[in-house]
Specification:
The protein is 44% helix and 17% strand. By secondary structure, the chain is α/β, with parallel strands linked by helices. The chain folds into two domains: 23-297, TIM Barrel; 305-414, Sulfite Reductase Hemoprotein, domain 1 (2-Layer Sandwich), CATH 3.30.413. The strands form four sheets. The chain has an eight-stranded parallel beta barrel, surrounded by five helices. Strands 13-14-15-16-17 form a five-stranded mixed beta sheet, sandwiched between helices. It starts with 22 loop residues before the first strand and ends in a 7-residue tail after the last helix. Pathway: Isoprenoid biosynthesis; isopentenyl diphosphate biosynthesis via DXP pathway; isopentenyl diphosphate from 1-deoxy-D-xylulose 5-phosphate: step 5/6. [4Fe-4S] cluster binds at residues 309, 312, 355, 362.
Length: 421
Amino acid sequence: MTAITLPSPDAYDPKPRRASVAVEVGGVIIGGGAPVVVQSMTNTDTADIDATVAQVAALYKAGSEIVRITVDRDESAAAVPKIRERLLRLGMDVPLVGDFHYIGHKLLADHPACAEALAKYRINPGNVGFKDKKDKQFAEIVEMAIRYDKPVRIGVNWGSLDQELLTRLMDENAAIGSPLSARQVTREAIVQSALLSAELAEEIGLPRNRIILSAKVSQVQDLIAVYSMLADRSDHALHLGLTEAGMGSKGIVASSAAMGYVLQHGIGDTVRVSLTPEPNGDRTREVQVAQELLQVMGFRQFVPVVAACPGCGRTTSTVFQELAQKIQDDLRKNMPTWRDKYPGVEGLNVAVMGCIVNGPGESKHADIGISLPGTGENPAAPIFIDGEKAMTLRGPNIAQDFEALVADYIEKRYGRKTAAE
């Protein structure tokens, strides 16, 4: 008989977080062992102050802890301090990141109020300037960051990679006996671009704890490779993201597969899910996906979890689906106010199950759960609270009655207690 060798209990747990330098961005800590930060980006014209304030506010309410905005021309730069001021008046002290390309050095110099209002500058080494101007214009942005004490994200992008660096590495690779593939060389060029740019920024005088690196690619395996390489060769805080991830389920699956892998291996300090919205779609969807990725992997808690069965031939009624959707939507909608009113409510687990097969068991595992009657079952729905059967609901208002029970449970468990109580 062959002996069975069992793995250690923690063999399949996430790897310890990679030790990275902590960077403070407008009061939010990225790296240094801090929780992984969720961020997003607007798609409004930044010069349109009303539209940009509205979208930043929506992203912030959805849970984006940092929001990036495009600063591409004088009108956009001039709008930034006004956007910041308007948000503060709304009670939203959300760090704003300026996304600069081509003329960022000039915009920061010409608009000091913009330079001051932003919490971080994002520089793409491939788009900061060309030929002999590249290093000079990069240096000017770094010097502005030093002057205003702002951190910088050096964000390399696959689609705008430094062509001089790539050409040199390709030539060197062609000269060796067993050359690497073009894809491998391109990955190396991305990593070197980030590391060399960070080295130059430090030489200019930007402290290491004011630098974040990112290496955006559009394929899952490339993301895994370049971030693994960066993690091996640097202790800079890392911003994760799959660029041009795509629309709908494709973008969600690709981003989750890529970032889930590197997060499981202890790599990554902040994430952005770059989803293409549906026409007139909700930009906050990318925030929700980023939160759900971190939550299902056990790294953070953002909103209560609603467990619901997928349905089968025993559940021809759509009641459990509708109830699960309603409760999930209500929980997410209420979280902006509940975070203060009900401390810890993000750890709540609710189960909405559709028949007797797994319903009672799943409901017992949740904080509060309902097992709705399946096809042919008695029209009764047992309710389980804290692992014990508490009651059975009957009649035409089962769904509404359960919603009221969830609200009551949240108030009793998470409501703030007065001194008298």
